[in-house]
Model the fold of this input.
Amino acid sequence: MTSESGGPSEADARLLDPLQDDLPLVAWQALSEDAADPNPFFGPSFLRPYLSHMGRGRVRLLVVADSLTGQWLMAAPIRSRPVGLLVPVPTTFTTDYGPVGTPLLHPDAGAIHVQRFFQAAAGKSGILALPHLPLASRAAGFLMDLEEADVAVVERSYRASHDCGAKGQSQFDDAFKGKRRKEMKRLLRRLEDEGPVSLETIEGDRLQAHFEQFLALEASGWKGRENTALASKSQTADFSRETVAAMGSAGHVRIDELRVGEKLIASLVSFVDGGHVFAWKIAFDETYARYSPGAQLVLFTFQQNLAMQGFKLADSLAIPGHSMIEPLWRGRRETGLLLLSSGSTATFKNRICSADFALEQTLRRLARDIRKKVRS
Done:
């Protein structure tokens, strides 16, 4: 984007309260819709309901706008918190409910706007952490090319995804062939002995009613027993209902379902944004586990994605190594924790934060090992 004189437009950076009443939601939503790297979790339809009901301290929305037109060119929620256990630094705000850390970046934005974003986010500390950042994104490319910053990718991980077009079809064919294809079809035939089987995609006016059915299905399983289902707590139930209502009204929610007769036995809620599909939440009836209802539905969703007009990429949002989805969605999306530091001690700051993160990960692994031994 250029000014009337032909040079780069001036960039104005502001920190805003994402819940303030007079926030320019139209400008925020427009940037979310147009972002070069779709990220529904940084848009107003997700972030405002989340912060309203879930809290999480002092989160501010950092906005870089064109100082002449006021158009938003880059935005992300920012909060100061430890990268690991001990060292609090400005960090783009991601959660387990939205593990995508890509700043919203307008296609017309350039290096000058990304540089202004980093300067404003890092502030006096001279450091910024960006967790869960898809490293192949346009925003990540700009950030890692910042001349004034020392760049460190502390952790790289790969989660299940799938592509579009011929590459996506090849991934589907590889996943659904041979013994697996034969077994999945056999299980589906056995499931038909229980009643008429149907696979359907829900959109539009029916979304909210079917999301209530998803909530009930999720709460009936192990997540309900462990009190981690969305419906287990009023905060998560209210946040999720508001999010699905807001995003659904704009055509950004899809629910894929597997039923036996009228009985819902598997449901997958996805967010659809800029040709990207984010598989947000899945649930299935455990009494039908022998028929692999979750896997059946994930394969159906794969086909629905490939048939979707304008489809570009599907992100499972699943933890790396997920036993059910990784054998079925054969693509991989690389994400990482990106550290950016400036100043004479930039390299030292990145090393301190990297060590802090490594310490936390080590303690987490030890805790998991202890829990496994106790259970066994």
